[in-house]
Amino acid sequence: MKKQFLLLLLLVVSYSYSQSVNDYKAVIVPLKYDFLNGENQFRLNTLTKFNLNKAGFVSFYASETIPAEYNERCSLLYVDVVKDNGFLTTKLFITLKDCYGKIIFQSIIGKSKEKEYKVAYTEALNEAFKSVYALQYKYNGSVAAKVEPAIQTEVVKPMASPVAVVKNVVSEPVVVNTVVGDSNLLYAQPTATGFQLIDSTPKVVMKLFKTSQPNSFIAMKDTVQGSLILKDNQWYFEYYQNDKLISEKVVVKF
């Protein structure tokens, strides 16, 4: 009965996700999962890549130099393994996300009652991958829909008649410098370690270095080092200046 239920569940998962997953060329495997203490601990990242390849996917580690045909980051999926809470039971499930962090696929929960971590994690991950195999993945040659981050326009409301008000001024912890408009549009060019952002000149404005998260980069702008992160479908370059966090909105086309 349990096997029949699992088979039915796998069929439902396969039907629900296969079409959207087939829109993506390859999968990026991180070097470390959040619930573990080190890179490739218990060889789970290696096991993930092995199973993805066996399931028909093309996969690369996040640290690898990716061939030019896979340089469009939004044509790729980003795999993660998540540990679920369980009493005396190890539970893991797999997610495949797009370049903006949206979950495209989530596996069934793999379980193990083994006491040794390596054995338990391996058993649970292999069970979770059963639903990945059920997808019968095959790239369909199409390009996954890419949703450009929306450019936010701030509307300044007219002020009422001046009124003298005495109040305590509280300094803002974050200063936001808004960069909006086609003239400030930056274009992302793939590099061996991430991307470089160029303007229309073309001039290299910023260099990006990949991290384990697809929506976060280490960023260098001239001599300023910070990070480029995606928040609310908008990219921000954040760094410290005189002990104050500066957040600059950046319009980027990947």
How many domains make up the coordinates?
2
Q: Cα-atom Rg, whole angstroms?
A: 22 Å
What is the N-to-C succession of helices and strands? HEHEEEEEHEEEEEEEEE
Biggest β-sheet strands, sense, barrel: 9 strands, mixed
Q: pLDDT under 50 segments (min length 5)?
A: 1-16, 147-156, 163-167
Helix content: 10-25%
- Give the overall shape: globular
Describe this entry's structure for a reader.
The structure is a single chain. The protein has 254 residues and is α+β, with helices and mostly antiparallel strands. It has two domains: 2-133, no CATH class; 174-253, no CATH class. Helices cover 19% and strands 33% of the residues. The chain is built from three helices and 15 strands. It has helices spanning 2-21, 44-54, 117-133; strands at residues 26-29, 59-61, 76-84, 90-97, 103-106, 110-112, 174-177, 186-190, 194-198, 204-210, 216-221, 224-231, 234-241, 244-250, 252-253. The strands form two sheets. It has a nine-stranded mixed beta sheet, with no helix packed on it. Strand 3 (76-84) and strand 4 (90-97) form a beta hairpin. Helix 2 (44-54) packs parallel to helix 3 (117-133).
Helix and strand topology:
Blueprint: H1 2-21, E1 26-29, H2 44-54, E2 59-61, E3 76-84, E4 90-97, E5 103-106, E6 110-112, H3 117-133, E7 174-177, E8 186-190, E9 194-198, E10 204-210, E11 216-221, E12 224-231, E13 234-241, E14 244-250, E15 252-253
Parallel strand pairs: 1-2, 1-3, 7-14, 8-15
Antiparallel strand pairs: 3-4, 4-5, 4-6, 8-9, 9-10, 10-11, 11-12, 12-13, 13-14
Helix pairs in contact: 2-3
